[in-house]
Amino acid sequence: MATGRTHRPATRSRGIPEATVARLPLYLRALTALSERSVPTVSSEELAAAAGVNSAKLRKDFSYLGSYGTRGVGYDVEYLVYQISRELGLTQDWPVVIVGIGNLGAALANYGGFASRGFRVAALIDADPAMAGKPVAGIPVQHTDDLERIIKDNGVSIGVIATPAGAAQQVCDRLVTAGVTSILNFAPTVLTVPDGVDVRKVDLSIELQILAFHEQRKAGEETTMETAAGDIGSLPAAAAAHGTSADDSADQGPDGDVPAVMPA
Ligand SMILES: NC(=O)c1ccc[n+]([C@@H]2O[C@H](COP(=O)([O-])OP(=O)(O)OC[C@H]3O[C@@H](n4cnc5c(N)ncnc54)[C@H](O)[C@@H]3O)[C@@H](O)[C@H]2O)c1
After folding, report:
1. What's the predicted TM-score (pTM) here?
2. ipTM (interface pTM)
3. For ligand 1, is residue 188 a contact (CB within 6 Å)?
4. Out of 3.40.50.2020, 3.40.50.720, 3.40.1440.60, 3.40.50.300, which CATH number does the structure's domain 94-202 have?
5. Is 125 annotated as a binding residue?
């Protein structure tokens, strides 16, 4: 559910485009569900539908992994799970720290989905001295005074920021100085980081605003369709209103309308 983009070139060093990397978790989620149902093989069409991705795009993505499937049989589910997990670096354990243990930080700490995907919550950090030592999700909260030591002792390279916006940059700077090179930022602010540090931003309110935009557009299309139905006949009303074909209009979106959670 990450909004925004990593501060990295569009293509990774091994030649896998960033957009492909962003779709790998979607394939993995669909494949894991198949694996849990003991499904041995899957066609590109089935997997694409389960992942919500176009099948030609899926085949292209898998070609970067050197995985081409077997004609008439499809892809081996277990092998693909392994291959994608390895590509995403999920075959190793990633210790993660969460900074800012308020409503959101505590909810994240309690989220079981991190551990099951190889992300171990190594420490919880907060600036409020009253919280120090209190357990959240069974882990005692530690004070920010110890942030650098905690990062070093646990070999942490991924930090999650769930502080108020005003504190986020300072927390980010301390995390980076202490050795963190990947940050998941929930605070509603843009973070500045040096080269070599990846930041992904999550903002549910932005997701809702994008949905609101589409709702508004749908409502507009319905109104246009009602008024245009009489004189335009079979032409899709929205396309007619915009002077475009139906196919063209389907691809258009507002500036910055980048699906954050499921990159296209
Ligand atoms: N991205 C999203 O979709 C989303 C959703 C909800 C909240 N948020 C954001 O997440 C952040 C936290 O929200 P919340 O509701 O949990 O707030 P909260 O007030 O409940 O918790 C914030 C916590 O951060 C701690 N804190 C403050 N300054 C700190 C610092 N310098 N170092 C370490 N800890 C510090 C506070 O002591 C507090 O425990 C806010 O920025 C909020 O806007 C984002």
Report:
1. 0.73
2. 0.98
3. yes
4. 3.40.50.720
5. no
